[in-house]
Amino acid sequence: MSARKVARPAERGHSGGGARHGAADGEPLTGSVEDYLKAIYELEEMTGLAAATNAIAERLDIAPPSVSGMLRRLAALELLSYERYKGVSLTASGRRAALRMLRRHRVIEAYLAGELGYPWDRVHAEAERLEHAASDELIDRMAAALGHPAHDPHGAPIPTRDGTLVMVPRQMLAEQAVGSRARVAAVGDEDGELLRYVASLAIKPGTMVTVVARAPFDGPLTVEVAGKGTKAQRTHVVGSTVARAVMVDAPVKRKRST
Amino acid sequence: MSARKVARPAERGHSGGGARHGAADGEPLTGSVEDYLKAIYELEEMTGLAAATNAIAERLDIAPPSVSGMLRRLAALELLSYERYKGVSLTASGRRAALRMLRRHRVIEAYLAGELGYPWDRVHAEAERLEHAASDELIDRMAAALGHPAHDPHGAPIPTRDGTLVMVPRQMLAEQAVGSRARVAAVGDEDGELLRYVASLAIKPGTMVTVVARAPFDGPLTVEVAGKGTKAQRTHVVGSTVARAVMVDAPVKRKRST
DNA sequence: TGCAAAAGTTAGGCTCTCCTAACTAATGTG
DNA sequence: CACATTAGTTAGGAGAGCCTAACTTTTGCA
Question: What is the pLDDT of residues A92-107, one digit of tens each?
Fold first, then answer.
Protein backbone atom coordinates (compact mmCIF):
# COMPACT_ATOMS: atom_id res chain seq x y z
CA MET A 1 0.00 0.00 0.00
CA SER A 2 2.82 2.40 0.59
CA ALA A 3 5.61 1.83 -1.95
CA ARG A 4 8.38 3.88 -0.42
CA LYS A 5 9.79 6.74 -2.43
CA VAL A 6 12.14 5.42 -5.09
CA ALA A 7 15.72 5.98 -3.99
CA ARG A 8 16.73 9.04 -6.02
CA PRO A 9 20.29 10.34 -6.01
CA ALA A 10 18.58 11.99 -3.07
CA GLU A 11 19.69 13.96 -0.05
CA ARG A 12 20.10 12.12 3.26
CA GLY A 13 22.06 9.16 1.94
CA HIS A 14 19.66 6.50 0.83
CA SER A 15 20.98 3.37 -0.73
CA GLY A 16 19.70 1.71 -3.87
CA GLY A 17 21.44 1.72 -7.18
CA GLY A 18 19.77 4.23 -9.53
CA ALA A 19 21.20 7.17 -11.44
CA ARG A 20 24.69 6.36 -12.63
CA HIS A 21 26.60 9.17 -14.22
CA GLY A 22 24.70 11.13 -16.87
CA ALA A 23 23.93 14.81 -16.29
CA ALA A 24 20.67 15.18 -18.12
CA ASP A 25 20.26 18.31 -16.03
CA GLY A 26 17.16 17.16 -14.26
CA GLU A 27 18.24 15.04 -11.28
CA PRO A 28 17.95 16.83 -7.96
CA LEU A 29 21.35 17.65 -6.49
CA THR A 30 22.16 17.48 -2.81
CA GLY A 31 22.72 20.66 -0.87
CA SER A 32 26.38 19.83 -0.64
CA VAL A 33 26.76 19.46 -4.36
CA GLU A 34 24.94 22.74 -4.84
CA ASP A 35 27.39 24.44 -2.51
CA TYR A 36 30.36 23.07 -4.39
CA LEU A 37 29.01 24.18 -7.74
CA LYS A 38 28.26 27.66 -6.50
CA ALA A 39 31.70 28.00 -4.94
CA ILE A 40 33.43 26.74 -8.06
CA TYR A 41 31.43 29.08 -10.25
CA GLU A 42 32.37 32.05 -8.12
CA LEU A 43 36.03 31.08 -8.02
CA GLU A 44 36.18 30.61 -11.77
CA GLU A 45 34.42 33.90 -12.20
CA MET A 46 36.67 35.90 -9.94
CA THR A 47 39.98 34.40 -11.00
CA GLY A 48 39.21 33.69 -14.61
CA LEU A 49 40.96 30.35 -14.19
CA ALA A 50 40.07 26.80 -13.30
CA ALA A 51 39.08 26.57 -9.64
CA ALA A 52 41.81 25.18 -7.37
CA THR A 53 41.11 22.39 -4.90
CA ASN A 54 42.47 24.29 -1.94
CA ALA A 55 40.57 27.41 -2.85
CA ILE A 56 37.33 25.44 -2.97
CA ALA A 57 38.20 23.82 0.35
CA GLU A 58 38.82 27.15 2.00
CA ARG A 59 35.69 28.71 0.59
CA LEU A 60 33.52 25.88 1.84
CA ASP A 61 35.43 25.45 5.08
CA ILE A 62 36.14 21.83 4.30
CA ALA A 63 39.40 19.85 4.32
CA PRO A 64 41.13 19.55 0.92
CA PRO A 65 40.93 15.75 0.75
CA SER A 66 37.17 15.95 1.07
CA VAL A 67 37.14 18.27 -1.90
CA SER A 68 39.27 15.93 -3.98
CA GLY A 69 36.78 13.16 -3.41
CA MET A 70 33.79 15.30 -4.22
CA LEU A 71 35.39 16.62 -7.40
CA ARG A 72 35.74 13.07 -8.68
CA ARG A 73 32.04 12.55 -8.04
CA LEU A 74 31.02 15.80 -9.69
CA ALA A 75 33.16 14.95 -12.69
CA ALA A 76 31.39 11.58 -12.95
CA LEU A 77 28.11 13.49 -12.93
CA GLU A 78 29.50 15.57 -15.78
CA LEU A 79 28.97 18.75 -13.83
CA LEU A 80 32.60 19.74 -14.23
CA SER A 81 35.75 18.65 -15.97
CA TYR A 82 38.50 17.46 -13.74
CA GLU A 83 42.09 16.54 -14.39
CA ARG A 84 44.08 15.45 -11.36
CA TYR A 85 46.40 18.12 -9.98
CA LYS A 86 44.95 20.73 -12.32
CA GLY A 87 41.89 22.63 -11.16
CA VAL A 88 38.31 22.10 -12.25
CA SER A 89 35.97 24.02 -14.48
CA LEU A 90 32.24 23.68 -14.75
CA THR A 91 30.59 22.11 -17.77
CA ALA A 92 27.57 23.75 -19.31
CA SER A 93 25.25 21.76 -17.08
CA GLY A 94 27.36 22.51 -14.01
CA ARG A 95 27.28 26.21 -14.79
CA ARG A 96 23.55 26.04 -15.28
CA ALA A 97 23.14 24.51 -11.85
CA ALA A 98 25.48 27.08 -10.31
CA LEU A 99 23.61 29.99 -11.83
CA ARG A 100 20.38 28.53 -10.59
CA MET A 101 21.79 28.57 -7.07
CA LEU A 102 23.08 32.09 -7.50
CA ARG A 103 19.62 33.19 -8.56
CA ARG A 104 18.01 31.45 -5.61
CA HIS A 105 20.47 32.91 -3.18
CA ARG A 106 20.07 36.44 -4.42
CA VAL A 107 16.33 36.35 -4.82
CA ILE A 108 16.04 35.12 -1.26
CA GLU A 109 18.37 37.85 -0.04
CA ALA A 110 16.37 40.47 -1.88
CA TYR A 111 13.12 39.12 -0.51
CA LEU A 112 14.29 38.96 3.07
CA ALA A 113 15.54 42.52 2.91
CA GLY A 114 12.65 43.89 0.90
CA GLU A 115 9.66 42.13 2.41
CA LEU A 116 10.69 40.97 5.83
CA GLY A 117 12.79 43.85 7.01
CA TYR A 118 16.03 41.91 7.34
CA PRO A 119 19.11 44.10 7.76
CA TRP A 120 21.48 43.59 4.84
CA ASP A 121 24.22 42.14 6.98
CA ARG A 122 22.09 39.17 7.95
CA VAL A 123 20.40 38.11 4.74
CA HIS A 124 23.38 36.13 3.52
CA ALA A 125 23.44 33.53 6.29
CA GLU A 126 19.71 32.96 6.07
CA ALA A 127 19.76 32.66 2.28
CA GLU A 128 22.65 30.25 2.50
CA ARG A 129 20.36 27.73 4.16
CA LEU A 130 17.09 28.50 2.41
CA GLU A 131 18.52 28.30 -1.08
CA HIS A 132 18.70 24.53 -0.79
CA ALA A 133 15.21 24.06 0.54
CA ALA A 134 13.14 26.46 -1.52
CA SER A 135 11.24 25.22 -4.54
CA ASP A 136 11.49 26.93 -7.90
CA GLU A 137 7.93 28.07 -7.42
CA LEU A 138 8.80 29.81 -4.19
CA ILE A 139 11.76 31.57 -5.75
CA ASP A 140 9.60 32.75 -8.62
CA ARG A 141 6.89 33.98 -6.28
CA MET A 142 9.43 35.87 -4.22
CA ALA A 143 10.91 37.44 -7.32
CA ALA A 144 7.45 38.36 -8.57
CA ALA A 145 6.51 39.90 -5.22
CA LEU A 146 9.50 42.19 -5.60
CA GLY A 147 8.79 42.98 -9.23
CA HIS A 148 11.60 40.77 -10.51
CA PRO A 149 14.53 42.79 -9.17
CA ALA A 150 17.77 42.82 -11.13
CA HIS A 151 20.04 43.04 -8.09
CA ASP A 152 20.23 41.70 -4.57
CA PRO A 153 20.60 44.00 -1.55
CA HIS A 154 24.37 44.04 -1.92
CA GLY A 155 24.18 45.02 -5.56
CA ALA A 156 25.00 41.63 -7.06
CA PRO A 157 23.07 40.90 -10.27
CA ILE A 158 20.34 38.26 -10.07
CA PRO A 159 20.46 35.67 -12.85
CA THR A 160 17.18 35.27 -14.70
CA ARG A 161 15.19 32.07 -14.56
CA ASP A 162 16.69 30.89 -17.80
CA GLY A 163 20.21 31.29 -16.45
CA THR A 164 21.24 34.60 -17.96
CA LEU A 165 23.48 36.78 -15.86
CA VAL A 166 23.92 40.37 -16.95
CA MET A 167 27.48 41.33 -16.12
CA VAL A 168 27.87 45.06 -15.87
CA PRO A 169 31.55 46.02 -15.87
CA ARG A 170 32.66 46.78 -12.36
CA GLN A 171 35.89 47.57 -10.62
CA MET A 172 37.07 47.47 -7.07
CA LEU A 173 37.06 50.77 -5.26
CA ALA A 174 40.65 49.91 -4.39
CA GLU A 175 41.60 50.17 -8.06
CA GLN A 176 40.17 53.61 -8.62
CA ALA A 177 42.54 56.43 -9.46
CA VAL A 178 42.87 59.21 -6.96
CA GLY A 179 40.40 61.90 -7.89
CA SER A 180 37.98 59.60 -9.65
CA ARG A 181 34.32 59.61 -8.74
CA ALA A 182 32.09 56.61 -9.13
CA ARG A 183 28.79 55.08 -8.18
CA VAL A 184 28.93 52.20 -5.71
CA ALA A 185 27.52 49.20 -7.53
CA ALA A 186 27.92 46.45 -5.00
CA VAL A 187 29.47 45.38 -1.74
CA GLY A 188 30.52 41.78 -1.19
CA ASP A 189 28.03 39.95 0.98
CA GLU A 190 29.21 37.12 3.24
CA ASP A 191 30.99 39.26 5.80
CA GLY A 192 28.30 40.72 8.03
CA GLU A 193 30.70 42.74 10.11
CA LEU A 194 32.17 44.40 7.06
CA LEU A 195 28.68 45.15 5.78
CA ARG A 196 27.71 46.75 9.05
CA TYR A 197 30.84 48.86 8.96
CA VAL A 198 30.37 49.89 5.36
CA ALA A 199 26.77 50.82 6.04
CA SER A 200 27.90 52.98 8.94
CA LEU A 201 29.90 55.00 6.40
CA ALA A 202 26.73 55.45 4.35
CA ILE A 203 28.29 53.40 1.57
CA LYS A 204 25.78 51.21 -0.20
CA PRO A 205 24.78 50.45 -3.78
CA GLY A 206 23.86 53.74 -5.40
CA THR A 207 25.90 56.15 -3.31
CA MET A 208 28.58 58.21 -5.04
CA VAL A 209 32.12 58.05 -3.75
CA THR A 210 35.20 60.03 -4.69
CA VAL A 211 38.71 58.79 -4.02
CA VAL A 212 40.52 61.66 -2.37
CA ALA A 213 43.79 59.99 -1.54
CA ARG A 214 45.46 56.64 -1.26
CA ALA A 215 48.35 55.70 1.01
CA PRO A 216 51.12 53.72 -0.66
CA PHE A 217 51.71 49.97 -0.32
CA ASP A 218 48.09 48.96 -0.57
CA GLY A 219 47.41 51.42 2.22
CA PRO A 220 44.14 53.00 3.29
CA LEU A 221 42.01 55.03 0.91
CA THR A 222 40.52 58.36 1.80
CA VAL A 223 37.11 58.66 0.22
CA GLU A 224 34.41 61.25 0.10
CA VAL A 225 30.92 59.81 0.39
CA ALA A 226 27.99 61.80 -0.93
CA GLY A 227 25.41 62.31 1.81
CA LYS A 228 21.68 62.00 1.47
CA GLY A 229 20.88 65.59 0.66
CA THR A 230 22.97 65.65 -2.50
CA LYS A 231 25.49 67.66 -0.53
CA ALA A 232 26.69 66.85 2.99
CA GLN A 233 29.84 65.03 1.95
CA ARG A 234 31.49 62.86 4.50
CA THR A 235 35.12 61.89 4.37
CA HIS A 236 36.33 58.50 5.58
CA VAL A 237 39.55 56.57 5.59
CA VAL A 238 39.05 52.91 4.77
CA GLY A 239 41.47 49.99 4.76
CA SER A 240 42.33 47.96 1.70
CA THR A 241 40.06 45.08 2.68
CA VAL A 242 37.08 47.37 2.58
CA ALA A 243 38.35 49.05 -0.58
CA ARG A 244 38.45 45.66 -2.27
CA ALA A 245 34.98 44.65 -1.08
CA VAL A 246 33.34 47.75 -2.52
CA MET A 247 32.71 47.57 -6.28
CA VAL A 248 31.95 50.62 -8.37
CA ASP A 249 30.39 51.04 -11.81
CA ALA A 250 32.50 51.72 -14.86
CA PRO A 251 33.96 54.87 -13.42
CA VAL A 252 33.80 58.27 -14.98
CA LYS A 253 37.06 60.07 -14.52
CA ARG A 254 36.54 63.60 -13.35
CA LYS A 255 39.76 65.20 -12.37
CA ARG A 256 43.14 64.33 -13.82
CA SER A 257 45.74 66.14 -11.79
CA THR A 258 43.73 69.35 -11.70
CA MET B 1 44.26 30.65 9.80
CA SER B 2 40.94 28.99 9.20
CA ALA B 3 40.10 26.67 12.11
CA ARG B 4 37.33 24.65 10.61
CA LYS B 5 33.95 24.71 12.28
CA VAL B 6 33.94 22.54 15.38
CA ALA B 7 32.18 19.27 14.69
CA ARG B 8 28.77 19.80 16.29
CA PRO B 9 26.19 17.01 16.42
CA ALA B 10 25.69 18.74 13.09
CA GLU B 11 23.82 17.94 9.92
CA ARG B 12 25.79 16.38 7.09
CA GLY B 13 27.59 13.74 9.13
CA HIS B 14 30.86 15.14 10.37
CA SER B 15 33.10 13.08 12.52
CA GLY B 16 34.66 14.01 15.81
CA GLY B 17 33.52 12.87 19.21
CA GLY B 18 31.68 15.70 20.95
CA ALA B 19 28.20 15.84 22.41
CA ARG B 20 27.40 12.53 24.08
CA HIS B 21 23.91 12.06 25.33
CA GLY B 22 22.60 14.99 27.34
CA ALA B 23 19.57 16.89 26.13
CA ALA B 24 20.23 20.33 27.49
CA ASP B 25 17.76 21.48 24.88
CA GLY B 26 20.20 23.62 22.98
CA GLU B 27 22.05 21.39 20.52
CA PRO B 28 20.91 21.75 16.95
CA LEU B 29 19.02 18.69 15.73
CA THR B 30 19.29 17.28 12.24
CA GLY B 31 16.38 17.60 9.87
CA SER B 32 15.77 13.90 10.17
CA VAL B 33 15.53 14.02 13.92
CA GLU B 34 13.16 16.94 13.66
CA ASP B 35 10.93 14.93 11.35
CA TYR B 36 10.83 12.02 13.75
CA LEU B 37 9.95 14.21 16.70
CA LYS B 38 7.18 15.95 14.83
CA ALA B 39 5.74 12.67 13.62
CA ILE B 40 5.89 11.11 17.07
CA TYR B 41 4.24 14.16 18.61
CA GLU B 42 1.41 14.03 16.13
CA LEU B 43 0.90 10.31 16.60
CA GLU B 44 0.86 10.60 20.37
CA GLU B 45 -1.54 13.49 20.05
CA MET B 46 -3.98 11.78 17.73
CA THR B 47 -3.99 8.37 19.38
CA GLY B 48 -3.46 9.40 22.97
CA LEU B 49 -1.03 6.49 23.28
CA ALA B 50 2.68 5.91 22.92
CA ALA B 51 3.69 6.14 19.25
CA ALA B 52 4.18 2.76 17.58
CA THR B 53 7.29 2.00 15.54
CA ASN B 54 5.36 0.96 12.45
CA ALA B 55 3.12 3.98 12.63
CA ILE B 56 6.14 6.24 12.72
CA ALA B 57 7.67 4.34 9.84
CA GLU B 58 4.57 4.69 7.74
CA ARG B 59 4.16 8.38 8.53
CA LEU B 60 7.74 9.14 7.52
CA ASP B 61 7.76 6.70 4.62
CA ILE B 62 10.72 4.86 6.06
CA ALA B 63 11.32 1.15 6.73
CA PRO B 64 10.55 0.00 10.30
CA PRO B 65 14.10 -1.16 11.08
CA SER B 66 15.38 2.32 10.32
CA VAL B 67 12.93 3.67 12.83
CA SER B 68 14.01 1.20 15.50
CA GLY B 69 17.57 2.39 15.14
CA MET B 70 16.66 6.03 15.25
CA LEU B 71 14.49 5.56 18.32
CA ARG B 72 17.44 4.16 20.20
CA ARG B 73 19.42 7.26 19.27
CA LEU B 74 16.65 9.63 20.21
CA ALA B 75 16.29 7.87 23.54
CA ALA B 76 20.00 8.33 24.16
CA LEU B 77 19.53 12.02 23.46
CA GLU B 78 16.76 11.96 26.05
CA LEU B 79 14.27 13.26 23.56
CA LEU B 80 11.92 10.36 24.17
CA SER B 81 11.53 7.35 26.41
CA TYR B 82 11.81 4.02 24.72
CA GLU B 83 11.19 0.51 25.90
CA ARG B 84 11.76 -2.19 23.35
CA TYR B 85 8.59 -3.57 21.82
CA LYS B 86 6.49 -0.94 23.52
CA GLY B 87 6.06 2.37 21.73
CA VAL B 88 7.80 5.66 22.48
CA SER B 89 6.67 8.87 24.07
CA LEU B 90 8.39 12.21 24.01
CA THR B 91 10.13 13.64 27.03
CA ALA B 92 9.62 17.26 27.95
CA SER B 93 12.57 18.30 25.85
CA GLY B 94 11.41 16.15 22.95
CA ARG B 95 7.97 17.66 23.09
CA ARG B 96 9.48 21.11 23.20
CA ALA B 97 11.43 20.39 20.04
CA ALA B 98 8.35 18.91 18.36
CA LEU B 99 6.22 21.93 19.17
CA ARG B 100 8.92 24.17 17.84
CA MET B 101 8.76 22.32 14.53
CA LEU B 102 4.99 22.45 14.51
CA ARG B 103 5.16 26.19 15.00
CA ARG B 104 7.69 26.58 12.22
CA HIS B 105 5.69 24.45 9.86
CA ARG B 106 2.46 26.28 10.47
CA VAL B 107 3.91 29.77 10.46
CA ILE B 108 5.52 29.00 7.13
CA GLU B 109 2.27 27.64 5.74
CA ALA B 110 0.42 30.72 6.91
CA TYR B 111 3.04 33.00 5.42
CA LEU B 112 3.14 31.28 2.06
CA ALA B 113 -0.63 31.43 1.80
CA GLY B 114 -1.02 34.91 3.22
CA GLU B 115 1.88 36.79 1.69
CA LEU B 116 2.95 34.87 -1.37
CA GLY B 117 -0.39 33.76 -2.75
CA TYR B 118 0.23 30.06 -2.41
CA PRO B 119 -2.89 27.93 -2.83
CA TRP B 120 -3.64 26.06 0.38
CA ASP B 121 -3.12 22.66 -1.17
CA ARG B 122 0.53 23.39 -1.89
CA VAL B 123 1.80 25.09 1.24
CA HIS B 124 2.38 21.84 3.09
CA ALA B 125 5.03 20.41 0.81
CA GLU B 126 6.94 23.67 0.70
CA ALA B 127 6.79 24.12 4.47
CA GLU B 128 7.94 20.57 4.96
CA ARG B 129 11.31 21.51 3.49
CA LEU B 130 11.64 25.07 4.72
CA GLU B 131 10.89 24.23 8.34
CA HIS B 132 14.32 22.67 8.69
CA ALA B 133 16.22 25.51 7.08
CA ALA B 134 14.57 28.61 8.47
CA SER B 135 16.11 30.39 11.44
CA ASP B 136 14.06 31.31 14.47
CA GLU B 137 14.40 34.92 13.43
CA LEU B 138 12.83 34.22 10.06
CA ILE B 139 9.92 32.38 11.65
CA ASP B 140 9.34 35.26 14.02
CA ARG B 141 9.49 37.81 11.23
CA MET B 142 7.01 35.82 9.18
CA ALA B 143 4.67 35.53 12.14
CA ALA B 144 5.00 39.25 12.83
CA ALA B 145 4.30 40.12 9.19
CA LEU B 146 1.02 38.25 9.52
CA GLY B 147 0.16 39.79 12.87
CA HIS B 148 0.99 36.60 14.79
CA PRO B 149 -1.81 34.43 13.47
CA ALA B 150 -3.29 31.78 15.75
CA HIS B 151 -4.01 29.28 12.99
CA ASP B 152 -2.45 28.05 9.77
CA PRO B 153 -4.39 28.04 6.48
CA HIS B 154 -5.89 24.65 7.27
CA GLY B 155 -7.11 25.79 10.65
CA ALA B 156 -4.48 24.05 12.77
CA PRO B 157 -3.42 26.09 15.81
CA ILE B 158 0.05 27.61 15.74
CA PRO B 159 2.09 27.02 18.91
CA THR B 160 3.50 30.20 20.42
CA ARG B 161 7.21 30.85 20.56
CA ASP B 162 7.38 29.57 24.11
CA GLY B 163 5.81 26.27 23.12
CA THR B 164 2.22 26.75 24.16
CA LEU B 165 -0.40 25.15 22.01
CA VAL B 166 -3.98 26.21 22.53
CA MET B 167 -6.12 23.16 21.99
CA VAL B 168 -9.67 24.10 21.15
CA PRO B 169 -11.94 21.07 21.42
CA ARG B 170 -12.67 19.74 17.98
CA GLN B 171 -14.43 16.78 16.50
CA MET B 172 -14.41 15.10 13.17
CA LEU B 173 -17.24 16.00 10.85
CA ALA B 174 -17.71 12.26 10.54
CA GLU B 175 -18.74 12.08 14.21
CA GLN B 176 -21.41 14.73 14.03
CA ALA B 177 -24.99 13.72 14.64
CA VAL B 178 -27.42 14.03 11.77
CA GLY B 179 -29.04 17.41 11.99
CA SER B 180 -26.19 19.09 13.81
CA ARG B 181 -24.71 22.30 12.52
CA ALA B 182 -21.12 23.31 13.15
CA ARG B 183 -18.35 25.62 12.09
CA VAL B 184 -15.50 24.06 10.16
CA ALA B 185 -12.39 24.57 12.28
CA ALA B 186 -9.74 22.77 10.29
CA VAL B 187 -9.00 20.43 7.43
CA GLY B 188 -6.03 18.08 7.61
CA ASP B 189 -3.18 19.35 5.50
CA GLU B 190 -0.77 16.89 3.86
CA ASP B 191 -3.13 15.59 1.21
CA GLY B 192 -3.22 18.21 -1.51
CA GLU B 193 -5.76 16.40 -3.61
CA LEU B 194 -8.16 16.16 -0.72
CA LEU B 195 -7.68 19.85 0.01
CA ARG B 196 -8.43 20.78 -3.56
CA TYR B 197 -11.56 18.68 -3.47
CA VAL B 198 -12.72 20.08 -0.17
CA ALA B 199 -12.13 23.61 -1.38
CA SER B 200 -14.22 22.87 -4.45
CA LEU B 201 -17.11 22.17 -2.07
CA ALA B 202 -16.54 25.59 -0.48
CA ILE B 203 -15.56 23.86 2.75
CA LYS B 204 -12.78 25.68 4.56
CA PRO B 205 -12.09 26.91 8.08
CA GLY B 206 -14.95 29.19 9.04
CA THR B 207 -17.70 27.85 6.82
CA MET B 208 -20.81 26.42 8.47
CA VAL B 209 -21.89 22.91 7.63
CA THR B 210 -24.96 20.96 8.58
CA VAL B 211 -25.11 17.19 8.52
CA VAL B 212 -28.25 16.31 6.63
CA ALA B 213 -27.88 12.57 6.48
CA ARG B 214 -25.45 9.76 6.93
CA ALA B 215 -25.42 6.42 5.18
CA PRO B 216 -24.87 3.43 7.47
CA PHE B 217 -21.62 1.47 7.83
CA ASP B 218 -19.31 4.46 7.82
CA GLY B 219 -20.98 5.51 4.61
CA PRO B 220 -21.07 8.91 2.92
CA LEU B 221 -22.39 11.99 4.68
CA THR B 222 -24.79 14.41 3.11
CA VAL B 223 -23.90 17.91 4.22
CA GLU B 224 -25.27 21.34 3.60
CA VAL B 225 -22.60 23.97 3.16
CA ALA B 226 -23.46 27.60 3.82
CA GLY B 227 -22.68 29.68 0.75
CA LYS B 228 -21.07 33.08 0.67
CA GLY B 229 -24.18 35.20 0.78
CA THR B 230 -25.36 33.84 4.14
CA LYS B 231 -27.92 31.90 2.17
CA ALA B 232 -27.23 29.93 -0.98
CA GLN B 233 -26.85 26.56 0.69
CA ARG B 234 -25.18 23.86 -1.28
CA THR B 235 -25.68 20.19 -0.59
CA HIS B 236 -22.88 17.68 -1.10
CA VAL B 237 -22.33 14.03 -0.42
CA VAL B 238 -18.87 13.29 0.90
CA GLY B 239 -17.12 10.04 1.68
CA SER B 240 -15.90 9.01 5.09
CA THR B 241 -12.30 9.89 4.35
CA VAL B 242 -13.27 13.47 3.74
CA ALA B 243 -15.63 13.45 6.71
CA ARG B 244 -12.74 12.40 8.92
CA ALA B 245 -10.37 15.01 7.54
CA VAL B 246 -12.73 17.87 8.26
CA MET B 247 -12.73 19.00 11.89
CA VAL B 248 -15.48 21.14 13.36
CA ASP B 249 -15.65 23.29 16.47
CA ALA B 250 -17.42 22.12 19.60
CA PRO B 251 -20.75 21.66 17.85
CA VAL B 252 -23.97 23.27 18.85
CA LYS B 253 -26.80 20.83 18.50
CA ARG B 254 -29.73 22.42 16.74
CA LYS B 255 -32.36 19.90 15.91
CA ARG B 256 -33.03 16.76 17.84
CA SER B 257 -35.64 14.69 15.97
CA THR B 258 -37.79 17.60 14.86
C1' DT C 1 68.44 22.74 -13.07
C1' DG C 2 67.56 21.05 -8.23
C1' DC C 3 64.79 20.91 -4.42
C1' DA C 4 61.97 22.55 -0.77
C1' DA C 5 57.42 24.42 -0.10
C1' DA C 6 52.84 24.34 -1.59
C1' DA C 7 49.13 22.01 -3.70
C1' DG C 8 46.69 17.98 -4.28
C1' DT C 9 45.85 12.97 -3.74
C1' DT C 10 45.16 8.33 -1.88
C1' DA C 11 44.21 5.42 2.23
C1' DG C 12 41.61 4.40 5.88
C1' DG C 13 37.94 5.97 9.24
C1' DC C 14 33.64 7.69 11.20
C1' DT C 15 28.74 9.37 11.55
C1' DC C 16 24.22 9.64 9.96
C1' DT C 17 20.37 7.71 7.78
C1' DC C 18 18.30 4.38 5.39
C1' DC C 19 17.68 -0.56 3.40
C1' DT C 20 16.83 -5.80 3.15
C1' DA C 21 16.82 -10.29 5.28
C1' DA C 22 16.06 -12.90 9.01
C1' DC C 23 14.79 -13.43 13.72
C1' DT C 24 11.97 -12.58 18.17
C1' DA C 25 8.22 -10.82 20.96
C1' DA C 26 3.41 -9.58 21.61
C1' DT C 27 -1.34 -10.47 20.45
C1' DG C 28 -5.71 -12.13 19.31
C1' DT C 29 -8.61 -15.83 18.06
C1' DG C 30 -10.48 -20.42 17.49
C1' DC D 1 -4.10 -22.02 25.63
C1' DA D 2 -1.56 -22.99 21.24
C1' DC D 3 -0.21 -20.79 17.27
C1' DA D 4 -0.44 -17.94 13.29
C1' DT D 5 -0.36 -13.12 12.42
C1' DT D 6 1.52 -8.78 13.19
C1' DA D 7 4.77 -5.70 15.34
C1' DG D 8 9.26 -4.83 16.25
C1' DT D 9 14.21 -6.04 16.52
C1' DT D 10 18.99 -7.32 15.40
C1' DA D 11 22.47 -8.13 11.71
C1' DG D 12 24.82 -6.65 7.99
C1' DG D 13 25.31 -3.10 4.23
C1' DA D 14 25.36 1.00 1.41
C1' DG D 15 26.26 5.79 0.14
C1' DA D 16 26.95 10.68 1.08
C1' DG D 17 30.13 13.67 3.24
C1' DC D 18 33.71 14.76 6.05
C1' DC D 19 38.34 14.00 8.63
C1' DT D 20 43.43 12.96 9.59
C1' DA D 21 47.76 10.96 8.20
C1' DA D 22 50.81 10.04 4.82
C1' DC D 23 52.20 10.22 0.14
C1' DT D 24 52.81 12.40 -4.71
C1' DT D 25 52.93 16.34 -8.04
C1' DT D 26 53.75 20.87 -9.25
C1' DT D 27 55.86 24.94 -8.83
C1' DG D 28 58.66 28.79 -7.37
C1' DC D 29 63.07 30.27 -6.82
C1' DA D 30 68.03 30.28 -5.87
Answer: 999 999 999 999 999 9
* Strand partners of residue B172: B247
> Does A237 fall in a domain?
yes
The 10 Å Cβ neighbour count of residue B204 is 18
**Between chains, do A116 and B145 touch, taking CB under 8 Å as contact?**
yes
CA-to-CA dists, residue A221 to A201, A211, A225, angstroms:
13, 7, 12
CATH at B73? 1.10.10.10
The rounded mean pLDDT for chain B is: 88
From chain B, which residues contact A within 8 Å (Cβ)?
2, 4-5, 12, 31-32, 58, 61-63, 112, 115-118, 122, 125-126, 129-130, 132-135, 137-138, 141-142, 145
Query: What ipTM is given for this predicted complex?
Result: 0.87
Domain region containing B47: 31-90
Contact residues, chain B, for A129 at CB < 8 Å: 133-135
C-beta contacts of A20-29 below 8 A and 24+ residues apart? A21/A76, A21/A77, A21/A78, A22/A77, A22/A78, A23/A77, A23/A78, A23/A79, A23/A91, A23/A93, A23/A94, A25/A93, A25/A96, A25/A97, A29/A97
Any domain includes B67: yes
From B257, B210, B207, B205, select the one nearest B238 (Cα to Cα). Answer: B210
